[in-house]
Amino acid sequence: MSNKLKIALGSTALLLTGFLIYLKVQANKLLNITYRFQNFKVVNAGISDFRFTTDLVVTNPSDLTFTITDYDLVIQVEETPVANIKGSNLNFVVRKNQSVPLPLDVQFDPRKLAANLLSVFVAAVTVNARKGAVKVRTIGTISVKYGVFGLKNLPIDYTYEP
Length: 162
Description:
By secondary structure, the chain is an alpha+beta fold. It has one domain (31-160): Immunoglobulin-like. It is 23% helix and 48% strand.
């Protein structure tokens, strides 16, 4: 093997190793994606039908732009699971070091809340409701893709208290 070929192979291996280390560091940052709710709005508050919309703001702490491909979320109101929201085959782009809103539309039967039903309704329809009256928690997973690389089932556990 010639010296030029050895140098070329060595350089290529070094560049590839550096790129893989960079990707690993950025993938580890993706494990620290942060979430928050904004634009929480009650659309309908009835005895057998309760609907609200909100944006789940996803903040990308890495230097990689990625795409959310799937999500599976359980929405809890006052610690009672009320809805399961799934999205699949998505193409929701989150740019590097940016935050973007993922719109959610949650509809459920409020009778699932049983003992907490009255306090939730009062907090939802009263303008002067006490701070923290309705606690909404989202738990579940998202899957993301960067180029040909993908990370499945990144955990989400976020609680919204107004």
